[in-house]
Each structure stands twice: as structure tokens, then as C-alpha cells.
Fold this protein.
Amino acid sequence: MYQKMETRFTRGKSAILERSLTRPKTEVSVSAFALLFSEMVQYCQSRVYSVSELQARLADLGQGVGASLLDVLVLREKNGKRETKVLNILLFIKVSVWRALFGKEADKLDGFPAKVTVHWHKGTTLMIKFDEAVIARDKALEGR
Amino acid sequence: MSRQSNRTTDSKKMNAELFTLTYGALVTQLCKDYENDEEVNKQLDKMGYNIGVRLIEDFLARSSVGRCQDFRETADVIAKVAFKMYLGITPSVTNWSPAGDEFSLILESNPLVDFVELPDNHSSLVYSNLLCGVLRGALEMVQMAVEVKFSQDTLRGDNVTEIRMKFIKRMEENLPAGDEVHSRICVPC
């Protein structure tokens, strides 16, 4: 989705593609979101038999949200340029993504792992485990 | 619900984007889990009902609205206070039936459907059906049985989105027998 598309590309396509992608002005209450989210968790819970299945289902739901958010945020805040280096992606998450989700930046950026797991230790820590290939590529890019 | 909240705090707002995307994720998941649109509509209504039953307590705690005298007042409270508080929009109340037991809410915008398009193979999906359940559940907790449905939907090609609400009956308050009375707030709206 791009902010401005030439009409010759959108003629015949839906009006939605013409809409602006600036931050919406409407605000919803946090309790509306909390109630919706709670119901979604309960829905997932009713369809699984284990905690790990529940977490997997919730993560699946989140993945779609994340993908859409990525496109919008990158367009809005980075002028369409996506980060490809590990540290920059993490910074992007810490600053932009967290701000879009929670209204403020994440507190700290620690350590480097692309499987995300949640740990509770003096507050909530999300651990992201990167594959070997990503680390290797990052090392190779460091030269540029 | 034992969360302490007084009227002036707890009106935290957030940008509608995450809310819209989250709702979209829910509807998408339901479409995968259920075979047809009718089932999804039913499920959305059911989930909305569960939300409404809890939302009403939050609403009564956070607004200074008292008991509604009649259905007209109820309509105004829903449109001007509740929708504003939770979704940041103010639908208009129109199309009253002569008997005063039915009205329409016209929504010019709806944060649930921002940037949403229904694909052709889901033409009978009532995307925002959760809202119907929420209204039904919330009003049931204040002793009003209502029927709520979408009579027009911009996602399905109409010019506006219209929710039709019909008053069915006043419900009996369910108080347990015996001396004890539950402290659950059931302020008739």
C-alpha cells in the first residue's frame, strides 16, 4: 500500500488503495482493546489442549498484526526503507514498533537472539533468538 | 471485577490502528476455523456478548450515567457516551419506530473496519458483528432484552453502516433467594 498511487494504476481497483496512511486520529479506549484481547485469549484457550498450543495460536494471531504494522510503520517513519541489519531492526522494534503498540519506547535493548520467547525475570523480557545465518550475514555486512 | 477505578482515571486511550489490526486478526482466524460465514457471524456475536457482559460494568464505573428513564434515553447514552468512550466515534440515532421500541444507529466511521475489504467469497460475512453481541450483552446486564443487527453495511456495498436495535422486554432481576444480596451492580439503565 502506498500513500500516493498514480490513478492509472488504481483505475478499476478499490477506493481503499487511495486512502492516506497517516496515523489515524481516532482513539479507542484501552479497555476496549483489553476486553477484545481477553476474549481472543479465551477463544484460543477453548480450542487447544496445552499451554504451548495456546501460545502458538496467540503468536499466529500476532504474526498477521505484525506484518501489517511493519509495512505501515516502515512507510510512515522510515520512508519505505526497511532495516536489514540486525541491530537496526532491533532498534526499530524498540523505538517505532513499541511506540506504535504501547505509546512509548521499550526500556532496554539487550542481547541478540529470532525465535521470540517470553521470560519473566524482574519484569517481562522478550528473548529473540536469531538464526546462525543472520549473524553470519550481519558480520559480512559490517564491512560495508 | 475488583479492579479499583474511579471516574476520572482509567480513561486511557490508544491509537486505533492496533485495535483495528487485532480485530482483523480475530475475524481472519474465525474464518479459518469455521466453514461458513454464518458460523463466523454467530461466533462473533457470541464473543461480543461475552465482552458486553463485562463492558457494562466498566462503563457504569467510568461514566456518571444513572438510570435511564426510557429506551430513548438508552439510545442517547449508547450513541453519545458509550460509543464515544470505547470507540471514539459518535453514531447518530435515527429512524425511530412509531412505538418507540426500535431505532437505528448510523455509523459514519467505524474503527473496526478501517482499511478492510471483504473478498468476494465472504459476501455474507457481517464483519463487525461483534458489536451486536456487545450491545446485546451489555443491555442484558441492565435488564433489557434487545435484538441488535446490522441493517446496512458499507463493507457489503451500502452507503452507510446502520445498526438496528429493537427493545424486546424488560427482564426480571435475578436476585438469589435468602438474606444475602449480591453486591454485583445491576443498575437498570
Q: What stands out?
A: DSSP finds four helices and five strands in chain B.
